[in-house]
Amino acid sequence: MSNFFRKAYNVNLPKSKRESEEFGGGKKGLVLCKKCTSAYYKKSWHHDIAGLKNYEKDWPVHFTVCPACQMIHNKQYEGRIKIKNIPVVSEDRLDDLIRGFCHRAFERDPLDRLINLEKSLPAGRQDGSDWTVTTTENQLANKLAKKIKDAFSKVKSKTKFAGDPSDVVEITIEFS
Ligand SMILES: [Zn+2]
Fold it and tell me: Which chain residues have CB less than 5 Å from ligand 1, an ion?
């Protein structure tokens, strides 16, 4: 885990869309992630305990690993975008877009994360690298792919869902 994920944010987070199945949702108490210090209370994950009332801060504390850290630890992902044939002139802008977009998503919801951004230039190619982006949430990958399509005119994409019982989405974007 990079320091990026350890940083605490003092922001008022909207209620996460994710109801927790694992923690018996709504049970009184506070659950902290050992890896990223995200806090689970009131049925969702938060960056910190700023949203708790004073008396609630005396609640019993349990330690666990949050779903996002667990997924990263298991080398799993829910969203993967393969971006192909990226011209050198577009690389900086695309890198900024991906990191910025995922960072803002993470600020809103500690479970929304960029896991990895892997770059490679296939042998024999002078220009046109291939990148693979993995995220903890399929919706994050979907929205990011849409953002990339909006930002760059000469791209086409296709989306594939792995299907039940998996939530994994695989998206391919190709620069032409
Ligand atoms: Zn965590």
Answer: 33, 35-36, 38, 66, 69
Return the number of other C-beta atoms located less than 10 Å from residue 23's C-beta.
16
CA of 158 to the centre of ligand 1 (A): 31
| Contact (CB, 8 A) for 160 and 68 | no
CA distance 10 to 141: 25
Q: Which of 115, 106, 110 is nearest to 80 (CA)?
A: 115
Which residues are within 8 A (CB) of 70 and not within 5 positions of it... i.e. 6 or more apart? Answer: none
Q: Can you give the pTM of this predicted structure?
A: 0.80
Taking CA atoms, 109 is separated from 29, 68, 119, in Å, by: 20, 11, 26
Q: How confident is the model at residue 155 (pLDDT cuts 50, 70, 90)?
A: confident
CA 51 to ligand 1 center in whole angstroms: 18
Terminal Cα distance for the chain, rounded: 34
- Tens-digit pLDDT profile for residues 4-59: 433 333 333 333 444 444 444 455 678 999 999 899 988 899 999 888 888 888 88
**Average pLDDT of the residues of the chain:** 84
Domains of the chain: 3-73 (no CATH), 79-175 (3.30.70)
